[in-house]
């Protein structure tokens, strides 16, 4: 294919290269650089070595953020690896009306996280539907949005609720590839439903489970919107529900934003994100061997 | 890239649609009645859990000022449905301007992503030039950068360009996403080369081959890119929250956040606002489900 103007390949690629260069790769590099400066929104700043990281270690809010983002991964990922798989098994059979159910279960994925967050803020309100139901059955009202830990737990539940349909579709595609002979052979051998799930289904979709684990753990560690909306911009009682990305947003923006310090927190986010990916993929390899 | 490949192989087999309404399991055997009943009961329970919250929000938005929305046991249907709350939202915040801003941002995002990703994807897949491998690598790296970690630097870049607090600034960082470029690249790579070769022999130049032959063959992927670009821009929260400070430029999600922050105790009002924000996307989803599902597998890496 030589009949192309020598410049045309670059004309094709140029818009994309320009956008990712200016708005993704350059900001990435400048985040790494800024992390070692005391740059502020309106002040260029100077090189300060590891000062930001030294301050980070002593910053209680940083540890709170790291704790909450880590708890988020631990709470959300197991649920998002297992529940959508069960859901996929539930909607796998082609029974009448099943396409309707599949679509309906996907609706939360389509909605904006802001809409989802606000719907649940109202549902979990002191006087909201969930508490009205709990009271009606005699449990009494629960302060889902006023207690530091219940807030975090509620936000996790919302993340899981919104993600169910998405991962369900991924699992459905994987389940379609499971050879039916395996199930039949296991059934002939007298294996019950639970046994077949453990010995046939799980091994067959294991690589998909790893994929879901990797995707959901990275997303969970970077959680922002759910907690921001449910706990408020300051992160709940005494800021105890602040996540790392919330801390980045809070310290780095505005006219007095500490760009350098926020970048140092971002570097921690990068490092943990990469570590999580490697961890999941490595766990995958170890199990394989 | 193994993740992308896994996701792609998952996507190549779309979830089996119900082609035959027979009541059989996936092995073609009949399903027992009690098992079927149990299945439907579970399906209905999950349905209540996933769609119920939206309906409760809709119901709340339709309840008038005199109706008790806090009753226990709860009242699921509004006694006298009214659109009063929707009028009040429009009186409280310029919600239709916000919707228009969201529409502008989402439409621009669709156009730039479809055009930019198709062009760049074609260059990566089909054109020979020095630096192609490096260009591909740059897009892969860009796809792996966690956006949440670079928002502050993106914001300072926007300030340097004088584009903070503009809708252009909202669109630009995601206007040609690396993921979409790589999706288009893979789509072009999967096309048989012979047709383009024949066109080349017939004297078609690179633009003609791109526009007349390659692009029409990857319409499905373009549709997926378009839908996810629209949804992504319409639903986005963190970036517009950071880049927009002037309330007259807000998009719907930021406007809703403002509404919630200022009128948190007016649940009917907030409910009406959320329904305005979510209704267009649910309508879009209802019409174009196929592409939404197809996009999940292809875009799984986006996480």
Automatic annotation (TrEMBL), chain B:
InterPro entries to which the protein is assigned, alphabetical: MetI-like (IPR000515), MetI-like_sf (IPR035906)
Biological-process GO terms, alphabetical: transmembrane transport
Source domain of life: Bacteria
Biased composition annotated in UniProt, kind: Low complexity: 9-18
Pfam families: BPD_transp_1
Ranges where the ABC transmembrane type-1 domain occurs: 99-288
Membrane topology, record value: Multi-pass membrane protein
Residue spans crossing the bilayer: 38-56, 105-125, 137-156, 162-183, 213-234, 269-288
Sorted UniProt keywords: Cell membrane, Membrane, Transmembrane, Transmembrane helix, Transport
One Gene Ontology CC term in the entry: plasma membrane
Subcellular compartments: Cell membrane
Region (Disordered): 1-24
Presence of keyword Phosphoprotein: no
CDD domains xref list: TM_PBP2 (cd06261)
Chief localization: membrane
Keyword Magnesium on entry: no
Family: Belongs to the binding-protein-dependent transport system permease family.
Protein's UniProt name: ABC transporter permease
Source organism per UniProt: Streptomyces caeruleatus
